[in-house]
């Protein structure tokens, strides 16, 4: 007997959509067929709905100290909000503090998450030094299933910047032991110098924010990192790509055989730098900044031709009171924008509804590609026999206008306020358990499991 039988749904993968029935037992998908007549404890009619693999959001900052303030969400409220949007797995960051090593940072972060998250989760190790101790611990972490290592080329004053010689050393060590390097790519010298000039001229208000971290800061840095990856043979993952020129650099590097994967984020695909001209423009301070319409189009083209592989939320939720100082001085706040709940709905709206992009492409960007890149494709990312029953029913008919209140994240505003989105996740399952049923949350704090890469 099955625990769950989902009938008559349009089951989507990154390659095709077929009307199929899905049978689940003990949290796993055990049977797929055009028509199933087996007994089940729960039978769900998905007629008219897509059945999609749970979204995997590989770039989040939940319960995160950004330098001036902590974000609003706990790992419970953040994971609950994710579930309402169809996300069943997230991967967050363990930032190595000055007083700890990278292994203790990972252990500390897991302790923060494990009794809170209602969905499965992973952890990236965020490396802030290249000491002998760090070099020795990297192989151990990779052996334990922590294969992704985040590094910054900027934020020197915060203790995050990895200098070029150290970056090469770390990339080599990580590569030699089967891991990969995730890099936030902005030229620190450009950003610090330009910010200093704006401060000196009393122009550090939100109207000038985009000029403090210009496209050139990203373009130059990505060019340099691609060279490092080419010379070392290291596996490189570039987070939140924003510019047309960066997309072209990555495209060319892929043609030359460089092992590079790149992501972008929902806000860079939808919003542009005109947001900084708004009365509430201070809400849109994130790093890198929003760019031009031409960059948005280049990002979409990069996704369509495979230059970019993944879309994440880069969820970092501050409320208005923690953002408003940027109205007069953007250096007084921590950058970031929330969106973990809107990742799936916004991608369906802007890709499928508005651009006519096949839903299968979206499944690739949000589920299958993240699972493959981050070493969990044996369990997550697609609807197939033997996989975890992480899936959601998506009804493409309802419409909803986003506002400051009709979401489950802890921030008090919506950066997409007034946008209409088409479709809604109506049932969300993680490991075969129904955790969202319409507007009701049925999950439990702490039932999410730690995922290790294979």
Task: Characterise this structure.
The protein is α/β, with parallel strands linked by helices. It has twelve helices and 17 strands. The protein has helices at residues 75-84, 102-114, 132-143, 164-176, 188-200, 209-212, 215-232, 244-255, 266-270, 293-304, 343-353, 359-373, and strands at residues 2-12, 17-25, 28-33, 40-45, 50-53, 55-57, 87-95, 120-126, 148-152, 180-184, 236-238, 260-265, 310-312, 391-401, 420-430, 433-437, 440-441. The strands form two sheets. Strands 1, 2, 3, 4, 5, 14, 15, 16 and 17 form a nine-stranded mixed sheet that branches. An eight-stranded parallel sheet has the order 6-7-8-9-10-11-12-13. Strand 7 (87-95), helix 2 and strand 8 form a beta-alpha-beta unit. Helix 7 (215-232) packs parallel to helix 8 (244-255) and helix 8 runs parallel beside helix 10 (293-304). The longest helix has 18 residues, at 215-232. The chain is globular, with a radius of gyration of 21 Å. The mean pLDDT is 97.
**Count of helix runs:** 12
What is the rounded Rg?
21 Å
End-to-end Cα distance: 31 Å
The general outline is: globular
Largest sheet: 9 strands, mixed
SS-based structural class? alpha/beta
Strand content: 15-25%
Helix content: 25-40%
Task: List SSEs in N-to-C order.
Answer: EEEEEEHEHEHEHEHHHEHEHHEHHEEEE
């Amino acid at each position: 007997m099955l625990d769950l039988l989902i009938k008559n749904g349009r089951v989507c993968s990154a390659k095709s959509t077929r009307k199929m029935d899905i049978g689940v037992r003990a949290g796993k998908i055990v049977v797929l067929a055009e028509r199933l007549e087996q007994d089940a404890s729960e039978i769900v009619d998905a007629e008219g709905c897509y059945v999609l693999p749970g979204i995997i959001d590989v770039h989040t900052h939940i319960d995160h100290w950004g330098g001036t303030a902590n974000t609003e969400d706990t790992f419970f409220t953040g994971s609950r909000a994710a579930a309402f949007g169809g996300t069943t797995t997230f991967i967050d960051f363990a930032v190595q503090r000055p007083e700890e090593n990278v292994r203790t940072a990972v252990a500390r972060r897991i302790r923060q998450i494990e009794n809170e998250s209602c969905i499965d989760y992973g952890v990236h190790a965020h490396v802030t030094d290249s000491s002998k101790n760090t070099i020795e611990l990297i192989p151990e972490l990779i052996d334990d299933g922590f294969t992704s290592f985040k590094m910054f080329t900027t934020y020197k004053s915060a203790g995050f910047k990895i200098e070029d010689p150290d970056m090469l050393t770390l990339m080599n060590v990580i590569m030699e032991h089967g891991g990969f390097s995730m890099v936030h790519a902005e030229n620190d010298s450009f950003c610090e110098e330009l910010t200093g000039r704006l401060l000196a001229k009393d122009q550090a208000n939100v109207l000038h924010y985009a000029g403090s971290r210009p496209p050139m800061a990203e373009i130059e840095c990505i060019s340099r990192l691609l060279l490092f990856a080419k010379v070392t043979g290291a596996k490189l993952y570039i987070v939140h790509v924003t510019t047309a020129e960066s997309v072209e650099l990555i495209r060319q590097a892929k043609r030359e055989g460089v092992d590079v994967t790149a992501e972008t984020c929902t806000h860079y695909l939808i919003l542009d730098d005109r947001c900084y001209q708004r009365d509430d423009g201070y809400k849109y301070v994130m790093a890198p900044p929003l760019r031009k319409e031409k960059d948005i189009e280049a990002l979409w083209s990069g996704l369509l031709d495979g230059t970019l592989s993944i879309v994440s939320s880069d969820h970092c939720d501050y409320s208005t009171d923690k953002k408003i100082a940027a109205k007069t001085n953007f250096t007084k706040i921590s950058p970031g924008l929330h969106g973990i709940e809107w990742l799936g709905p916004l991608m369906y709206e802007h890709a499928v509804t508005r651009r006519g992009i096949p839903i299968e492409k979206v499944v690739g960007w949000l589920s299958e590609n993240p699972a493959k890149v981050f070493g969990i494709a044996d369990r997550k990312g697609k609807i197939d026999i033997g996989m975890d029953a992480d899936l959601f029913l998506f009804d493409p008919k309802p419409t909803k206008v986003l506002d400051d209140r009709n979401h489950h994240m802890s921030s008090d505003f919506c950066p997409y306020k007034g946008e209409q989105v088409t479709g809604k996740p109506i049932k969300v399952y993680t490991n075969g358990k129904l955790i969202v049923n319409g507007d009701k949350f049925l999950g439990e704090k702490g039932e999410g499991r730690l995922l290790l890469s294979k």
